[in-house]
Amino acid sequence: MKRVVRRFTSLPIRARLSLLVAAAVAFGVAAVSVTCWFIVQGKLYQQVDTQLESAGFRFKDDETLRALLAACPKDVTETSDDMRPRDYYVQVVKSDGTACVFADSAGVVKTTAEDSDVAADPETSVPTFHNSTDADGNNVRVRTLPIMVGFGPTSQLYPDVALTVGVSLKDTEKTLNDLALVLLLVSGIGVLGAGAAGLAVARAGLRPVDKLTDAVEHVARTEDLTIRIPVEDDSEDEVARLSRSFNSMTSALASSRELQQQLIADAGHELRTPLTSLRTNIELLTRSEETGRPIPEADRKALLASVKAQMTELAALIGDLQTLSRSDAGTPADRVQVVSLQDTVEAALRRARLRGPELTITANVDPWFVRAEPSALERAIVNILDNAVKFSPEGGAVDVTLKDGELTVRDHGPGIPADELPHVFDRFWRSPSARALPGSGLGLSIVARTVQQAGGDVALSPAEGGGTVATIRLPGAPTPPPALD
């Protein structure tokens, strides 16, 4: 059975659908055919029984019956006027099972226990119908009844004998056999037609699946993510939903590939400058050692300081790229926790005060709890505060406020021009006025991605009186959720 199931499941979907439809139709047709055959059989047997009931065989007096019994078990050579067997099987059965057959009977019918029972107790027995066979093995429908002698009020039951009247079932069986053949042919044609119809329906219904399969194979073969499957706008069936999902998936993959290529290109561009400068400085130091012409001590210290700064810049850039790549990959569910945004902001403020000791950083933070990755969220807030510290004038102030899940960081720096605001969260984008300052151009991109993954949003806008306001909104609550048992 398991082997049959495995073979069935290994067939193509079209073949399976065709077989299932054919099997369902075959079961239905078989049930109807069998039911029809039995109904017709019952009707035909009912007609035969009616024919036997209307035969009307009766003995005029007991002398005729006694003569018949005296001649038994030999065949009776004469028939009374009121006993005309013609095409019937007519015989008298004794209680011991002996059959006394009329000479012009259609044949001898084998007696059964039912015949003997009626003969043994004619007063309480009722006529019975049953099937039997004649001496040649042909099927016969038999009616066995007590023998009435005489007519009218003087009629009486004759003891210890019964009359069996039978008729051949050849015509009935031929009719049933012909009907069975017709039903078999009709069932076969119906099953074949159902299989063909099921195959046609499967082909028509699975045509969109074929298109989807071709599209998937094309993508796997060519890595072409621009392919799309046409879907009717008003179609809501499963195949249409699957096609839309496939189109959405390829669009997302194409966008991801484009972003990846852009990231590689931007990273290569950003890495080229510090690497070129680092290589130049190292070559100068190497040439000085090879030629024996020492570089002045002040210039040597400047070169080494430049090399150290460039290495620091490269390390920061690589760290930002790693952070951004992890953000693109998504945050694993097991790393998401309930985080106190108030504690995270206060930890970031401590780091910001160390980096800008000359600045006045004021904070007013209320409790707020969010679901996020703790380290990523702290890195994002540190980046926002670093920008505020970096662009604040010496002796300036930075105002930090956290209320109802909205964190605002306001600096009093030069601000961001309106035409540059749409690009501040782009990767590697740096304002022309800030390119001389240290940084990789990835800090705000990391902030935007982290906040989005936490379900919030971030925005930068000009502040009244100069400077910039960074606003982060995160969904959460002022109290932590109850701990699960």
Explain what this protein looks like in three dimensions.
By secondary structure, the chain is of the alpha+beta class. It folds into 3 domains: 56-171, 2-Layer Sandwich (Beta-Lactamase), CATH 3.30.450; 238-327, Helix Hairpins; 331-473, 2-Layer Sandwich (Heat Shock Protein 90). Helix content is 52%, strand content 16%. The protein contains 11 helices and 12 strands. The protein is rod-shaped. The model is unreliable at 75-83 (pLDDT under 50).
Question: Main attributes?
Answer:
single chain; 485 residues; alpha+beta; Beta-Lactamase; Helix Hairpins; Heat Shock Protein 90; 3 domains; five-stranded antiparallel β-sheet; five-stranded mixed β-sheet; 12 strands; 52% helix; rod-shaped
Summarize the structure.
The chain has 485 residues and is of the alpha+beta class. Helices cover 52% and strands 16% of the residues.
- What's the number of helices? 11
Question: What is the residue-averaged pLDDT?
Answer: 77
Radius of gyration: 52 Å
Total domain count: 3
| Order of strands, widest sheet | 2-1-5-4-3
Task: Write the H/E string, N to C.
Answer: HHHEEHEEEHHHHEHEEHEEHEE
CATH topology name of the largest domain: Heat Shock Protein 90
Unreliable stretches (pLDDT < 50, length at least 5) are 75-83
> Please, what is the CATH homologous superfamily of the largest domain?
Histidine kinase-like ATPase, C-terminal domain
Q: Which percent bin holds the helix content?
A: 40-55%
Number of strands: 12
